[in-house]
TrEMBL record, chains A, B:
It comes from the Bacteria. Residues 6-140 form the HTH marR-type domain. Gene3D superfamilies: Winged helix-like DNA-binding domain superfamily/Winged helix DNA-binding domain (1.10.10.10). This is Winged helix-turn-helix transcriptional regulator. PANTHER family: MARR FAMILY REGULATORY PROTEIN, TRANSCRIPTIONAL REGULATOR, MARR FAMILY. PROSITE patterns: HTH_MARR_2. SMART domains: HTH_MARR (SM00347). It comes from Streptomyces ureilyticus.
DNA sequence: AGCAGGTAGTCAAGCAGCTTGACCATCTAT
DNA sequence: ATAGATGGTCAAGCTGCTTGACTACCTGCT
């Protein structure tokens, strides 16, 4: 594959990602969850399964644990999560979503579906599923680095 | 398309975009262009065709013109671009890439090709081209908002 | 021609989110 | 039992962005 093709692919991917992020963020706000940034959303996806420690969150977000701790402060203060004692480690605290946190997560899913809808109209559902499958095969499992 | 599917697609897209950004950035650095951030790369793509004014750059990046001006200061100081008088407007200045700026752009293309290579090995060139075509059809023309 | 309002760019101050560094409490391995 | 590693927080500092204010220049209307 030529360099210029690779660059065109990269540019398109980044442009789509940027717009998607914006649309999901706007959709979440429109549903009444304010004062959140996209980084909080990335945190929610890590917290959702069964909670996580600050350090785990820091690894997932690709930031220092101080930054992660500060982010947790914010979402706790706003009522989206709470710190509970960790069941197996007295040093650690398990950060889990509150009911409001779950509601926000569901709102994000709705917003994502809304953001993707124009793609379905343009490409068809079959093509969008194909896109999803290809992306999922090349998606890394490492940290989500939002800082670019 | 279900909400959960849309969310999975979004997550995969953002993860891939994040990793791609990181790889291109690393590749550019490995080729000897240091002290640059991904945002500079987005600026270069706007400057490349025939230069741009600070205000045009600001719109493209989705930031204030003050921030864009500051970014131009940086890449001028580092020798990647220069400010020339605008041919038709004495208020404006046309920011154009220097030879070093072009060299950096070529390095970014090489890095992009390198970053995409594993995808080609995994999916095949035909599939990656299909991915590119789909993404280009849904890519917006608006500002690249790197701040998420 | 001349003036009013809009636009390009810069200077200055402030802020938000991140980093590095230091520290204590607790866990784990020897 | 003790030494080192790990989870978390406090504090200070930096960087890239924002808002606000200003000058120089362009454009359209009278």
């Amino acid at each position: 594959m030529q360099n210029s093709e690779a660059m065109a692919l990269s540019a398109a991917l980044l442009a789509v990602a940027g717009e998607l992020t914006q649309r999901i963020h706007d959709g979440v706000e429109a549903r009444g969850f304010e004062g959140l940034r996209p980084a909080h959303g990335f945190a929610f996806t890590r917290l959702a399964p069964g909670g996580a420690t600050v350090t785990e969150l820091a690894v997932h977000l690709g930031v220092t644990k101080q930054a992660a701790s500060q982010l947790v402060d914010e979402i706790v203060r706003k009522g989206y999560a709470e710190r509970r004692p960790h069941p197996h480690d007295a040093r650690a605290r398990l950060v889990v979503l509150t009911e409001q946190g779950w509601a926000c997560t569901r709102a994000a899913e709705e917003a994502a579906a809304e953001a993707v809808r124009p793609w379905v109209e343009l490409l068809g559902e079959r093509e969008v599923r194909a896109l999803r499958d290809r992306l999922m095969r090349i998606a890394p499992s490492g940290p989500i680095k939002p800082n670019w």
